[in-house]
Design goal:
With 220 residues, the chain is of the alpha+beta class. Among the domains are: 76 residues, SH3 Domains (SH3 type barrels, Roll); 57 residues, SH3 type barrels. Strand 2 and strand 3 form a beta hairpin. The longest helix has 22 residues. About 30% of the residues have low confidence.
Length: 220
């Protein structure tokens, strides 16, 4: 009889324990991790969230040196180039049949103009590393590589048809006639007269009828 009562008490205790456990609410399942932007996984811990929200924005990428579009100008009142030490401005000529003129001093700058006239006189007005800023007879300015320029002097006849004389005198015989825009080699220039060579024909012409030589310049 006592053994039977003990079994009944054990059964009642077990039923009470199971009932208490069933009465407690079930724990919620752990939250699903947030998908990452690239890997599909991300750390959703509070520390990770803090780092994500408090991190400063990334610094902007620095512009490449060659991409800066600022055009380098010659300093006001400059007498010589900062690269070559030669006079600025000065006259030179194009050394190739095709010369790419660019909007800035570098090959990564867009081409603004293509010159197809070897020996065309141009004026160097600024220098920057391997590039020279030039100005042509129409006032157009652009940048070209120094290897595309020559120190040989050439001129353009300005205005209408001009008479080139055999001597630097107003009443000298006419050696040849040249129309405006004709290109020639500058041989010498002194005082009011310059000697030029146009396709093998030499003659003297007043300095004021030429583009490619300065009013107070002596060329020998």
């Amino acid at each position: 009889m006592r053994r039977a009562l003990r079994r009944i008490g054990a059964l009642l205790s077990a039923l009470l324990i199971c009932g208490a456990a069933a009465a407690q609410p079930a724990a919620p399942p752990p939250p699903l991790p947030k998908p990452g932007a690239e890997t599909g996984r991300a750390d959703s811990s509070p520390a990770a969230e803090s780092l994500l929200h408090d991190a400063p924005p990334p610094a902007p990428l620095a512009k490449p040196r060659g991409g800066e579009m600022a055009v380098v100008e010659a300093p006001p009142g400059a007498k010589t180039g900062g690269v070559t030490g030669l006079p600025v401005p000065r006259f030179v000529s194009l050394a190739a049949d095709k010369v790419n003129a660019r909007v800035g001093p570098g090959t990564n700058y867009p081409i603004s103009w293509v010159y197809n006239r070897r020996n065309l006189p141009v004026e160097v007005v600024a220098e920057y590393e391997l590039f020279r800023k030039i100005r042509d007879s129409e006032g157009t300015e652009s940048w070209v590589h120094k290897n595309l320029l020559s120190g040989r002097r050439y001129i353009l006849i300005t205005g209408g048809t001009r008479m080139l004389r055999e001597r630097p005198e107003e009443d000298a015989a006419v050696a040849l006639m040249a129309e405006g825009g004709v290109q020639g080699r500058l041989l010498s220039c002194k005082d009011a007269w310059c000697q030029v060579d146009i396709k093998g024909n030499k003659g003297y012409v007043p300095r004021g009828y030429l583009w490619g030589v300065y009013a107070d310049e002596t060329v020998e």
